[in-house]
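Morning. Coffee machine broken again, so started the prediction first thing and wrote up yesterday's gels while waiting. Chain of 114 residues, entered below exactly as on the submission form.
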Amino acid sequence: MQYALLIYSEPGEPEDLDAVVAAYNEFTSNVQSEGIMVAGEAPHPVETATTVRVRDGAATHTDGPFAETKEVFGGFYIVDVPDLDAAIAVAERLPGSWWGSVEVRPILDFNQAQ
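Came back before lunch.
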């Protein structure tokens, strides 16, 4: 089953950016070599976001994220593991969980839902 590991942390760069990048590179290398990584990406900083809303057929575009929050979306991994417990174990290894949070969510397979 596939799970999304959604990474959230406070905005801004960490004090030791080189160490964080190294930790993420090691994590990525490990999940790739384990054969469980399906995808993973990180967006540009939250200041580059644009939120789109369509109400009654009229679109509005707002600079910035959808909501003001303490933590912002920092990226994601999609892993293919047997169950939720395995996905949680992978999320505990993810560097973002050490100073932020990682939301673990199963991916809906629309082919199986039919």
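The CA atoms of residues 6 and 103 lie 5 Å apart. Going to sketch it on the whiteboard this afternoon.
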